[in-house]
Amino acid sequence: MPDFNLKDRFFDYVKIHTQADPQAPVEKYPSSEIQKDLGRHLVRELLTLEVSDAEMDEHGVIYATLPSNVSYDVPTLCFCSHMDTSPDSPGDDVKPLLHKDYDGKDIVLPDDPSQVLTPDNHPNLEHKMGEDIITASGKTLLGADDKSGIAIIMALTEYLQAHPEIKHGDIRILFTCDEEIGRGVDRLDMEKLNADIGYTLDGSEKGVIEDETFSADSVTVHFTGVVEHPGYAYQKLVSALKAASAFVHSWPQDGMSPETTTGKSGFVHPVSMEGTVEKAAIQFIIRDFETEGLDQKFEYFQKIASKVKKEFPGIEIAMDRKEQYRNMKYIIDQHPEAVEYAIEAMKRAGLKPKKASVRGGTDGSRLSYMGLPCPNLFTGQQAIHGKQEWISLQDMEKSTQMLLELVQIYAEKSQ
């Protein structure tokens, strides 16, 4: 396998603090200016690699091009990763550690010895004997989600620039911000991107290609009660807080929630509730692999609202439903080569391909509906968003090798 210089590059990226800010106003992009610190670093690196059009726009989105080196038309590919890290765990002062030649024993993270990686709590470690495992030091997340994807794309870029004999069409590089808070492509200029087929490098297990995500909506349920002085409230006061609590409690206890569903089953999930006696609101998310399933679940909202209105005479309930993203499979199935060529690339790289469904969404979900069919490819990231996040250096190398094969397959198939 070629030497892709992944370790040093990845270590450099994860040390740059890029945590997204979910409390930032929606109109602020990126949500945290620190994401541009990595963006500026990447643009400098791309220019050093003689990628002459590399730029970061006013929103922090990075665009760059590796021009075609063949004389015939090849679909323009886009490889995409996101620069931000999750707000779920501390992301500042990341100290990456390399655990060479993993021996199967527990990995104790030195800055917090209570953080211990074992094959029991991380079953995939059982398959990594002899590999080089990268973790953080115990007090922060690692940031492999998705700086592993960035490192892989940059390693591919460096390799292709050094080996012009490898045939490929135009390759567009795209690095976004705020993917972790659902705003990753909010400021994307599709005309500037100008690509035909996309691939996000934001997946986990080696050999996995994800061509399907949830379809997703959000629902805000508003409750308006009747306020009276509690000392004189008999048969007058109607509590919006109590009605909201009853609404949440009315959902099935043995299904339709994240903690009771798996596989291809969708769910309804209350993510926040706030209010007073007079007014209360609950934020829900709805998820289903079938877009029609979202409508069925919303009908359940209406049934529960009717029930709660009977239990709390005088309560007013209003619901605001918004589309978030849709299952990218509906679009990707119209471009079967996007998956077929990726599977062939994995096989050429010595991997056993596995198709999987994402119980969530990716930038690829929205990109697919913006005109860029965009499956998600593995990088090797594991236990993301937490202090025990880890990745195998060899998985990252295999992902880079897969991309190297993929660009050549598109060139071959286009002759």
What is Rg? 24 Å
Binned, the helix content reads 25-40%
Order of helices and strands: HHEEEEEEEHEHEEEHEEHEHHEHEEH
How many β-strands, per DSSP? 17
In CATH terms, what is the fold-level topology of the largest domain?
Aminopeptidase
Terminal CA distance reads 27 Å
Give the count of helical stretches.
Answer: 10
Total separate domains: 2
Assign an overall shape. Answer: globular
Q: Supply the CATH superfamily name of the largest domain.
A: Zn peptidases
Content-based structural category: alpha+beta
Q: How would you state the average pLDDT, rounded?
A: 96
Main sheet attributes: strand count, strand direction, barrel closure:
8 strands, mixed
Strand order of the largest sheet: 1-2-8-3-9-16-10-15
CATH architecture of the largest domain: 3-Layer(aba) Sandwich
Give the low-confidence spans: none
- Identify the CATH class of the largest domain: Alpha Beta
What does the oligomeric state look like here? single chain
List keywords for this structure.
single chain; 415 residues; alpha+beta; Aminopeptidase; Alpha-Beta Plaits; 2 domains; eight-stranded mixed sheet; four-stranded antiparallel sheet; 10 helices; 29% helix; globular
Care to describe what's here?
There is one protein chain. Helix content is 29%, strand content 22%. By secondary structure, the chain is an alpha+beta fold. It has 2 domains: 6-213 and 327-413, Aminopeptidase; 215-324, Alpha-Beta Plaits, CATH 3.30.70. The strands form 4 sheets. An 8-stranded mixed sheet has the order 1-2-8-3-9-16-10-15, sandwiched between helices. Strand 1 (55-56) and strand 2 form a beta hairpin. Helix 1 (6-14) packs across helix 3, helix 3 (144-162) crosses helix 10 and helix 8 (337-348) packs across helix 10. It is globular and about 85 Å long. The two termini are 27 Å apart. The mean pLDDT is 96.
